[in-house]
Design goal:
- With about 550 residues, the chain is α/β, with parallel strands linked by helices.
- The protein is about 50% helix and about 10% strand.
- A hairpin with a 5-residue loop joins β4 (about 90) and β5 (about 95-100).
């Protein structure tokens, strides 16, 4: 049992007490709910959270602005992220839960209220180890007569992997906030427990202990029964110290604000008045120095340039200065290896190296989260290039027409490969230290078409690597097709599991770069061996990647 790490946690307290719609009665006690809970969370003797890490959002009106606020604070939290909502709750036609805002119109929930699905998406992408949601709202308005059945349906919606959810049972507004009361019924009991503590109880008031006490009190007083749902050991996380125990054991008296006797407006702690969590830019790259990725992108472009410069320069020189002919048949090239022919692959493959280097450099140079997409593309494509280094060096061109370049070409190419290894190590280090950290999770939509698409792309990658083993040029080695097979089969599946979603998108982009590289090579050097199969493979890959990218875009919402 422990409290959240105060320097790595955030709390967002949301409350709507004033409504424009005459169909939603005002809840004056909401202001007290927000202020008193904030006072306890930020009391050094109780919650211990720094004031700048506890955001109060009173009477929000725009769902989009509220969603952006939640997403920004969620992305900055590393240890614990707490979301508290108090106000009216609404249910849609399919029993989906909506949190009512100041401008909410009951007949226009989708555009005027915050759908809980959006909050669930924010929590799913939150890197914090513990994610806590406290809902003090009714499922009100259009709820059916059998509240128990509907509540079970809605509670199923809030079951998020790695998240603890504590809710009040939905009833009408009068029961939750009697006229003239300082707090709503549920939050009032919660605050009373946090203020007075549990004599002879544990040192910390965990969510599990809080739920059991609230359930006992609600049963004894005939109040609506709270509900909880959680996974793992989230219920062992503490919300506050137990003032009844900590005061006696430490010999101090915690400074606890007194109970309010009537509705009061909360202190206006709004997003405009609180500094945004680090980093201030919503899409800023986090984890270490963001310049590392930018420098890595430039060095990757340089490595690609050095690794292809000798062969590309020699081929261009032969074609332009020596009137060599360009051939696309490997058999013809082998018959005339010492005469005046240049394989087309000696022009197209280096050109693709440079194109991939430029695209990756530009992605890594972005200031927003898209830079992590560039990092993933660099890792996937760079590892595939590294896997082909032994094959490349073992088959180094011995065309005597390249005598002008033989004094330095091997050294330059090797220097490019060494630089590539350094860049890959630096990017891997940056990914390990990124914030929010990269993590694996069960996909929210682990079902067709996303899963079927990823499996199909993985199978296509395995087929491509198997074909490399029978490369008609004889240039591939076991290391080449093993590395390519692992990358092209693992990248699509990893894209379903890896978060943040920018890394997942980069894995898909890296898969496409690897497949395009090998297709260009085959069509440039051995079109007769392809028999059109790589053309169909490429067209199918584009269609399937479109489906997978659409899934990733949906997951990022």
């Amino acid at each position: 049992m422990r409290l959240p790490d105060p320097q790595r946690s955030y709390a967002v307290l949301i409350g709507t007490g004033t409504y424009r719609s005459d169909r939603l009665p005002d809840l004056p006690a909401v202001g007290n709910n927000l202020q008193d809970l904030s006072d306890i969370l930020t009391d050094p003797a109780l919650g211990g959270l720094p004031a700048e890490r506890c955001l109060i959002v009173p009477d929000p009106s725009d769902p989009r602005t509220l969603f952006r606020t939640l997403r920004r604070y969620a992305a900055a939290a590393e240890d614990t992220f707490l979301v508290y909502f108090t106000g009216h709750g609404q249910t849609g036609p399919r029993n989906e839960l909506y949190l009512s805002l100041a401008e909410t119109v009951p007949d226009e929930l989708k555009v005027s209220a915050l759908a809980f699905d959006l909050l669930r998406d924010v929590l799913a992408d939150c890197p914090a180890a513990n994610r806590v949601v406290i809902l003090d709202c009714c499922f009100s308005g259009r709820a059916i007569q059998d509240m128990a059945g509907e509540e079970n349906t809605i509670l199923g919606q809030v079951g998020i992997e790695g998240t603890y959810v504590l809710t009040s049972t939905p009833v009408n507004a009068v029961a939750l906030a009697p006229t003239g009361a300082a707090h709503t019924a549920f939050t009032g009991e919660l605050l009373r427990l946090l203020r007075t503590g549990i004599p002879s109880g544990p040192e910390f008031l965990t969510y599990g202990e809080i739920y059991r006490r609230l359930l006992h009190t609600a049963t004894a007083r005939g109040l609506p029964l709270p509900r909880q749902r959680g996974t793992g050991t989230a219920d062992l996380l503490a919300l506050s110290r137990n003032p009844a125990v900590s005061a006696a054991s430490a010999g101090i008296r915690p400074v606890v604000p007194p109970l309010r006797t009537g509705p009061e407006a909360p202190r206006p702690t709004t997003p405009s008045e609180l500094p945004w969590p680090v980093p201030p830019d919503e899409g800023e790259v986090r984890g270490g120095d963001p310049r590392l990725l930018r420098v890595a992108g430039r060095l990757f472009l340089l490595a690609m340039f050095l690794s292809v410069l000798p062969s590309l320069a020699a081929s261009v020189y032969d074609v332009m200065a020596s009137d060599y002919s360009v051939v696309t048949s490997v058999e013809e090239w082998q018959r005339n290896a010492s005469t005046s022919v240049v394989p087309l692959a000696d022009l197209t493959v280096p050109a693709f190296y440079l194109l991939a280097g430029v695209v990756t450099w530009r992605l890594c140079a972005q200031r927003g989260k898209i830079a992590w997409s560039g990092a993933a593309v660099l890792m996937v494509y760079g590892l595939d290039v590294a896997g082909g280094v032994p094959s490349r060096l073992s088959s180094f061109s011995e065309n005597p027409s390249q005598e002008f370049f033989t004094q330095w070409d091997r050294e330059v190419e090797i220097a490019g490969y060494i630089l590539l290894g350094i860049v890959l190590a630096a990017v891997a280090f940056a990914i390990v230290r990124m914030r929010p950290p990269a993590r694996l999770q069960r996909p929210v939509l682990w079902r067709t078409p996303a899963a079927a698409t990823a499996l199909t792309l993985a199978a296509a990658g395995l087929y491509l690597s198997a074909r490399l083993d029978f490369d008609a040029t004889g240039w591939s080695t076991p290391l080449t097709w093993v590395v390519t097979g692992v990358l092209t089969s693992a990248a699509p599946l990893a894209a379903l599991l890896v978060r943040p979603v920018e890394l997942a998108s980069g894995l898909v982009g890296g898969w496409l770069a690897v497949v395009l590289y090998h297709e260009i090579f085959f069509w440039s050097f051995a079109p007769s061996a392809a028999h059109g199969e790589y053309l169909w493979l490429g067209l199918d890959a584009v269609a399937l990647l479109t489906v997978l990218w659409a899934y990733l875009k949906r997951s990022a919402r």
